[in-house]
Structures are given as structure tokens and as C-alpha cells.
Amino acid sequence: MTLPITIGDLRHRVVIERAVRTDDGAGGATSIWQPVADVYAAIWTRGSDEGFALDRVAGRATHDVWMRFRADVTPDMRITFGTRVFDIRGAIDPDDRGRWLRCPVEERDL
Fold first, then answer.
1. DSSP secondary structure, 59-76, as one string
2. Rounded CA separation 77/83 (Å)
3. Could you tell me which residues come within 8 angstroms of residue 104 by beta carbon, excluding any fewer than 6 positions away?
4. Of 36, 49, 68, 90, which residue is the least packed, with the fewest Cβ within 10 Å?
């Protein structure tokens, strides 16, 4: 199987983050995003659209983020690249060989 990715495509330094809940002292909890790893990745746009959300126009773009395989990436995490935030929708090993990881992601509120 020939994959559409090469090591030279990994030119974006991104941060993988995980949500951590902490008590707020008043019986509730606050979520903060904690870095898991800094990795090099390829970010490829798949599509975009816009719609109405909360009485305003909201943009949404979908991408594929490719990186070297990591077993610890899950859909409840996110990826940041500078000020851009990508919600991870999946973590796929496309050839089941533990070489590459493809993460379909969604970037919202553009």
C-alpha cells in the first residue's frame, strides 16, 4: 500500500493537548488543556463550509493531520498550531503497521 505521505511533508510543529478537569473550589470543575507532546505534522485541508450557530455565521474547516504513529492520541484530544485549534475526530493507523497516524480534525469558528 502506497501512502500519500513522506517524511518531508511533516513541516508543521504542532502541540497535542489533553483536557484535564480540576476542582474549582465551589463544587464544580474547570477544564484546562495540558500539552501531551510537540510533534512535526502535515496539515492537509479536506474542505470547509459555513452555517448559522448561535445567531451568527460560523465557519468550519476539515483537515487531515498526519504524523508519525503515536498510540496515545485519542479523539478527546486536540491539536494546536500557533493560534489555530483542531478538534481530533479520529486517530487512524492507515496501513496497520504503526508507521503513520492520520487524524481527521475539525477547525471551527473561522
1. EEEEEEEEEE--TT--TT
2. 16
3. 46, 62, 63, 64, 88, 89, 90, 92
4. 49
What the block records as the C-alpha cell of 52 is 448559522
Q: Residue 91 has which C-alpha cell? A: 486517530
State the CATH class of domain 9-108.
mainly beta
Q: Are 21 and 30 in contact (CB under 8 A)?
A: yes
pTM for this model (two decimals): 0.85
Give domain limits for the chain.
9-108
State pLDDT tens for residues 77-108: 999 999 999 999 999 999 999 999 999 999 97
